[in-house]
Amino acid sequence: MSELHIEQIDKRFNGLDNKVLDSLDLHIPSGKTVALLGRSGSGKTTLLRIIAGFIDPDSGRIAMDNRVFFEDGKSVVPEKRNIGFVFQDLALFPHMDALENIGYGLPRSERKETGNRMLSLVGMAGFGNRYPHELSGGQQQRIAIARALAPKPRILLMDEPFNSLDASIKSDTLAFVRKILDQSGITTIIVSHDFHEAEMIADSCAILDTGKVIQYDRVQTVKQQPANDFVRRIIESDYRVSSEATAPGV
Amino acid sequence: MIKLAGSSTLQAIRRRPLWALLIIAMFLLLAVPLLSIPGAALLRKQENWTHMLTYLLPRYLWQTLILGLGTALGTGVIGVGTAWIMSRYRFKGKLLFEILLYLPLAVPAYIMAFSYAGFFESGGIFERLYTGLFSVSAPNIQVMNMAGLIAVMSLALYPYVYATVRSSFQMQAPSTMEAARILGASRTRAFWTVALPAVRPATVAGISLVLMETFSEYGAVHYYGVENFTTGIFRAWFTLRDTSLALKLAGILLLFTFGFLAAEKYTRKRKAYHSIPASHTAELQRLSGTALLLRLSLLLIPVLLGFIVPVGLSLYWSSTITVHLDAEFWNILMNTVTIASVSSLLVMGVALLLSHGSSLFPRTLLQTMTRLGSLGYAIPGAVLSLAILVFSNSVLNLLWESGIISVDAARMLLVQLGFANLLFAFLLRYLAVAFKPLESHYLKIGNGVTEAALSLGKTPWRALFSVNLPMLRVPLLVGGLLVFIDLVKELPMTMILRPFNFETLAVKTYYYSTNEMLRLAAPYSLALVAIAAIPSALISLIRLKQRRKRG
């Protein structure tokens, strides 16, 4: 379990005038699940990708416990950060079966044993030799979570992982993921555009708008005392995901 | 199930008899000549077969295999490597490489082979340059062997792999590479274990085209003294005058080609390689300093060796003689442009009709027939030519024996059939090149557009011209240009089927070069490369425009 410190992060993409992230501060306590909420283009995914190390901020500082990931232009590469990531499109490797996918981030000697244990953990024992295209959307989701958790990361990042799920299985999957996160006790950040989703899975939520955190508190507190009209509209899910992508990765 | 498929096919034929007839006729046109190969091979005399079986066949098999494997490896490394650099990095001058990397497509392997043989020959340019620069005698570099041939074929054919893999890398979801990195993989491990396997189908598709070309190559292979099946067929046909032997070799080469295709399909098994839809575009890595220099050199090497050096050598040799661009030169140039243009238009027209016809009969036997009918690209040119010759001679014999035509008429027809045979062979061999882009376009847009036009009272013909054709302009044009390039460079089929005294730039270049007259060959090879380079550059510009449109 680890805590994450995000301090004064700025990010601007080439060719765009506005900052995607603007002096953003966020502290994620150890063992908690925090949901990042906001409309399209508010910087949620960019923040997640900066924490993972896929892109670097223009300035600021990111540290996990006492280990600095980014400061003064110096950056630790993604493979050295010990972070788990569940992608929006799941990003399962299509040419590897479920067990090989889960074992990818493990030392060769541990792949089979840990892989099978993770399969059992996500309720997929016996599905190890199935390829991703032979699994349903919900099953693929479980494999993606198992793969991210297998190397025992210190923090788990999830980028709108429930978007592609059918409404009929979404609430079951959310409850299941919540259970897994509780069991593992891992610090988690989950990007979402749906407040109800956040309510089901997160302890706290941070509402982002134009690259700034405008409210960060326990989910129930945000629900009962929204900081302004914008947050109220987010809670009422007025801002659904729109297709207007304003910058790569935003 | 079979009954159901059969009845739906019959129903489809009854509904649109003209379109169905067109597809069946095209299928039979390809299938009948090819099916005549085994029969004709078995029925004819056997005298050279034992000698071939004992002494030559193992050599042909072995050398075809080595050449195929070597060229597959060479084109794979160059094609995938250049595609990776172009897809992952951002650097100054990238736009220029978008065009340059396709240009070796305009240089036929045999011209490259002649150029390097001349460059490294005793007393040649390399020797003089080396001695002049270092004041010591130059090392004796032998290129006219298997290794030299593999290098030449790889430089001439890598654009096939580059083109397919480039668009595959482009479509790959960047999140899979990011997933590998976040799971602890270095850039190198992520490339080998995730990025590379994901482009395997594209790599195999590109390498398959390369192998079809390699199995079909005659000029370069013969000149470098390597003996593969195609040179064997030519020897049996032109030197030994043994049709039966040529047909047997053709049959074995056909088995070899289809064996390769089946083996690839088998090794894929259940694995899926289709890309997941990208949720965001990949951020290109900016290059500078040593990293930029290294990558630029890697991109420049195939362009330099595959285009600039052979073209430069031809220019140099042209400058050492007084070039007479006489009537013969212009005549040959016109022959080349005319036959390539007419055949390309014919191929484009048939491909358009077949792809549209096939879309009218989804999930029927007719659709399968269309796909089989466009398999000609997998059949080496020499094999196809023999099949067509045997077939057209058999038809004439039948007509003469049954008294429908006189001996004189049969002889006259035999002469006149020359051009028809050539056009027919080009159509069968290159149909797939124009058909595939159209077919995939139809698969992508589905039948909705055609069905909408039909439901508004248009006939399939009107739907084709008013709705589909405007949407198909780009794939049709790209397919047509690719066919044109292939036809300008085509050698083995033209050699076997051309009418008496009909010469093309390829035939003339080959004639002069194999008779040790590289200087005389140079103007013809330069003209050939120039004619093929224009459509190559056009294709790269069209692809670039499309990529930019897709974002």
CATH topology of the domain at 4-74 and 85-95 and 153-235 in chain A: Rossmann fold
Helix content of chain A: 25-40%
First and last CA, distance of chain A: 28 Å
Task: Output the structural class of chain B.
Answer: mainly alpha
CATH classification, class level of the domain at 4-74 and 85-95 and 153-235 in chain A: Alpha Beta
The chain pair forming the largest interface, with residue counts per chain, is: A-B, 33 and 30 residues
End-to-end CA span of chain B: 44 Å
Shape of chain B: globular
Multimeric organization: heterodimer
> What is the H-and-E element order of chain B?
HHHEHHHHHHHHHHEHHHHHHHHHH
The string of secondary-structure elements of chain A, in order, is: EEEHEEEEHHHEHEHEEHH
Strand order of the largest sheet of chain B: 1-2
DSSP strand content of chain A: 15-25%
The description of the largest β-sheet of chain B is: 2 strands, parallel
Number of strands of chain A: 11
Strand order of the largest sheet of chain A: 7-8-9-3-10-11
CATH architecture tag of the domain at 4-74 and 85-95 and 153-235 in chain A: 3-Layer(aba) Sandwich
